[in-house]
From TrEMBL:
InterPro entries: TPR-like_helical_dom_sf. It comes from Lichtheimia ornata. This is Uncharacterized protein. It comes from the Eukaryota.
Length: 281
C-alpha cells in the first residue's frame, strides 16, 4: 500500500523548543486535521456500501482502495473491501485484503477483530466442498458427468488432480466409473526420484495410460513400474530414454501384466516388450 501524506500530517510534531501557548496551538490544529479525514473515510465508506448493493462492484472497490490510501492504518477501507469481495464470493480476495489490513491496523483498534473474523469466515467458506455427485443417478454420473469433468487431456503427474481431491465420494466415483486414468510427465522437468511421483504411486492400479516425456536420470521410472501395481496399464509411451537405462526399464516391464496394446514409443525397445499371454481353451 502506498504511503499516505495524511499519515504524516496527522501526527503530532516533535518540538525541539516548546512554549505552552504555541504547543497547544500545534496540538489542537493537528487534532482538527483528523476531522476531515474521518469525514472523507465515512463518506467514502457509505458510498462504497451503496455501490456494492447496486452491484457496481468496480466503483465500490475503487472507493475502498482510496480509503486505504488516505489512511493506511484505518481498518475501514480493508473492512469495506472485504465485504465487497465477500458479496461476490471471492473468498481468496477477502483473505488477502484482511491479511494486508491486519498488518497495517493497530491490534488494539476496535475494528481489528472485524478483519480477523472476516478472514476466518472466508477461510471456512473457501474450504467448503459441495458433494452433490452422490445424489445423481449412476448412469448420469458415468456417461455424462465424469467425461465432462475429466475431459480428454492427460493428468499432470506433478500436480494434484482437482476432481480426485474434492472428497472420498468424488474420488471413488471417478476411479470406479471412469475409463481409467491417463497421466503424463513433463518434458522440461524429469521426475528423477519416486518422491515426486506421489500421484502415480497413489493411483497406480487405476492408471490406464502413462506418457513419459523423458527418462534419462536415475532409476525412478523402472522403480515406479516395478514397485507399484500397474495392473490396469494398457498404454505406455516414452518419448526420450537414455541408452544406459534400457535394460533396467525392459526388465521392469516384465513385472506388469502387459497386453499387446502396451507399447513404449522407442524404436530400440518396442520389440522387447512382453506380449499378451494367451490361455488355452
Amino acid at each position: 500500500m502506498a504511503h499516505s501524506i495524511w499519515t504524516d500530517l496527522c501526527k503530532q510534531p516533535t518540538q525541539a523548543v516548546s512554549t505552552e501557548k504555541y504547543a497547544a496551538i500545534v496540538y489542537d490544529a493537528t487534532t482538527q486535521l483528523h476531522q476531515p479525514i474521518h469525514s472523507m473515510l465515512t463518506t467514502l465508506d457509505r458510498r462504497a456500501m451503496a455501490l456494492s448493493k447496486l452491484a457496481n462492484f468496480e466503483s465500490a472497490l475503487r472507493d475502498a482502495n482510496v480509503m486505504q490510501q488516505i489512511s493506511p492504518s484505518s481498518p475501514l477501507g480493508y473492512v469495506r473491501a472485504a465485504d465487497i469481495y465477500s458479496e461476490q464470493g471471492k473468498q481468496r480476495h477477502v483473505i488477502d485484503v484482511c491479511t494486508r489490513g491486519m498488518m497495517m491496523v493497530d491490534r488494539d483498534d476496535m475494528h481489528y477483530d472485524l478483519l480477523q473474523r472476516a478472514k476466518d469466515n472466508a477461510i471456512q467458506r473457501q474450504d467448503k466442498r459441495i458433494d452433490f455427485i452422490s445424489e445423481l443417478p449412476i448412469d448420469i454420473v458415468a456417461t455424462t458427468f465424469l467425461p465432462m469433468i475429466a475431459g480428454d487431456s492427460p493428468l499432470d503427474s506433478l500436480k494434484p488432480c482437482p476432481y480426485l481431491h474434492v472428497s472420498n465420494a468424488w474420488r471413488n466415483y471417478f476411479l470406479r466409473y471412469s475409463d481409467g486414468l491417463r497421466f503424463e510427465t513433463g518434458d522440461e522437468e524429469e521426475e528423477e526420484d519416486l518422491e515426486k511421483c506421489t500421484q502415480l504411486v497413489r493411483f497406480a492400479r487405476h492408471i490406464k495410460a502413462l506418457h513419459v516425456g523423458r527418462y534419462s536420470k536415475g532409476t525412478w521410472l523402472s522403480d515406479l513400474l516395478r514397485e507399484n501395481d500397474f495392473s490396469s496399464l494398457r498404454e505406455l509411451y516414452v518419448d526420450e530414454m537414455g541408452v544406459d537405462y534400457m535394460d533396467r526399464f525392459v526388465s521392469s516391464l516384465r513385472s506388469i501384466e502387459c497386453t499387446h496394446d502396451t507399447m513404449a514409443k522407442h524404436d530400440d525397445i518396442i520389440a522387447l516388450l512382453p506380449t499378451r499371454k494367451t490361455s488355452s481353451t
